[in-house]
Amino acid sequence: MSSQTQKFVKFGSAIAVILLALGYLAYTGVQESKSYYVTIKELHTMGDGAYSKRLRVAGNVQPGSIRRSGTHMNFVLVENDQILNVVYSGTEPLPDTFKDNAQALADGSFSRDGTFYAKQIQAKCASKYAPQQQNDAAPTKAVSHLDTRSSSERLN
Questions:
Q1: In this structure, are 46 and 113 located in the same domain?
Q2: Are residues 43 and 24 in the same domain?
Q3: Considering only 39-43, 56-60, 93-97, 119-123, which range has the smallest mean pLDDT?
């Protein structure tokens, strides 16, 4: 083998190793960050598959279930007739909208003891996004800026 051919083989081998390493890192990164959205009912019926996956579970926070202890927080998510005990031990503070009856999305893992260990919590308060109630007062008459009549003419 000539020295030039040996250089090409070494260079090609190095490129192949780098590409394989990058491919492996990309694959494992996607697997680590992938999470499955499931309902509480689906979570309880997943069997052993629930313990090995990163999951996202949504529900309403059960009134009176929020318990804070240092950096940890325990609460219960409710969906229809299903309940799920959740322990949050993330580093980020919980959103202001996280309170009783709020819709919450927990991202984490399910344990064999029946507890969901969340690393992230997202919350939405349904009343905050509800449409505003209309007053029963008489509707006001809209006045156009292009109306050239005087104000006394508009009132008549």
A1: yes
A2: no
A3: 93-97
